[in-house]
Design a protein that fits this description.
This is TIGR02678 family protein. The protein is mainly alpha-helical. About 45% of the residues lie in helices and about 10% in strands. The longest helix has 19 residues. The protein starts with 8 loop residues before the first helix and ends in a 16-residue tail after the last helix.
Length: about 325
């Protein structure tokens, strides 16, 4: 069997890297890029069938287009701290789109163009506005959406006259995922999330449920049962043995299913994943709090419902 169709231990490792990283650049990580490329067919088949994800293996990078089943507030860009950051980032993408690959531009030119692209007023003499742009440019540089040729963006935080020379790399053309229609034809987030689904047949409905369940398992810390008739959780219970066998065959995770919770765990701590609990004190505190809360609920000292939010023991 060719390595393209082989799902072996290296394919498991490649799958983890694709899930944990926005993309894998050949220039930065040639060994893992080659690992992914050599098992492209096997990985493509698995991600398409189980999660409905598209794997792109370009001559310069490999990227798994990850779309959450349910967007959560904590899924945002961790480096961003203000809604302005997201707006500026979108404006930066629009600015880059107008540039050619390998074309260079100055920070001052970008700042001037952002004033016309940004939906509100920008004042670069305002410290908070400059800090937002610094966060945006640092994040863009970390993904290699822009390359720093000369200068230091951190200096812009202290003086709006600071200058930086940037270059547009090929990767910037592949940051955004493609949609079947022009983005201006979508008016809500729900429409964007539904854009990948065009068939409402029973077969597609079952496939969408599988994709939704797998996405929640792989992209969230835990999948919680929302109600007694939660169809996704019923799917987990019905096919739990098959799901456990499939996940443990194709990844290094273990599938655990409880009365109200399902999750993926690891026996060994991974160096490249954010694991819980970790070595930080906040993990110890949260575990101790959860243990005490569980004891209080079991003893009846705390109630999780029925008494109403105004009750002194309500949680």
């Amino acid at each position: 069997m060719s390595s393209q169709n082989l799902y072996d231990e290296q394919a498991k490792e490649a799958a983890e890297w694709l899930l944990e990283n926005f993309w894998v650049l050949r220039e930065d990580d040639p060994d893992r890029y080659r690992m992914i490329r050599e098992r492209e067919q096997a990985l493509t088949l698995y991600f398409r069938e189980k999660l409905g994800y598209r794997l792109i293996v370009h001559r310069y990078f490999a990227k798994l287009e990850k779309i959450p089943a349910v967007p959560e507030t904590w899924m945002g860009i961790q480096e961003f701290t203000d809604p302005r950051d997201y707006a500026l980032f979108c404006c930066l993408l629009a600015f880059i789109e107008m540039k050619s690959v390998d074309e260079q531009f100055l920070l001052s030119d970008l700042c001037e163009e952002l004033k016309s692209l940004y939906p509100d007023e920008l004042d670069w003499t305002h410290y908070e506005h400059r800090k937002s742009l610094v966060r945006v440019m640092r994040f863009a540089a970390s993904l290699k959406l822009v390359l720093t040729v000369d200068g230091d963006i951190e200096q812009f935080r202290y003086a709006e006259t600071s200058e930086v020379l940037y270059e547009v790399p090929i990767y910037s053309r592949y940051f955004m995922r493609t949609y079947p229609k022009d983005l201006f034809q979508y008016s809500t987030l729900e429409e964007l999330l539904e854009a990948e689904h065009t068939d409402d047949s029973d077969e597609q409905t079952g496939m969408r449920r599988r994709h939704r369940v797998y996405r929640q398992l792989f992209l969230t810390p835990a999948m919680l049962r929302k109600s007694d008739d939660d169809v996704d959780f019923l799917y987990l219970r019905t096919y739990r043995n098959r799901i456990r066998e499939d996940i443990e065959k194709h990844t290094n995770y273990q599938f655990e299913l409880y009365r109200n919770t399902a999750m993926l765990t690891r026996m060994e701590r991974g160096l490249r994943q954010d694991m819980y609990p970790d070595q930080r004190a906040i993990s110890d505190i949260s575990l101790q709090f959860a243990e005490q809360l569980r004891a209080d609920v079991l003893s009846g000292r705390v109630t999780t419902g029925g008494a109403g939010p105004d009750h002194p023991q309500y949680v």
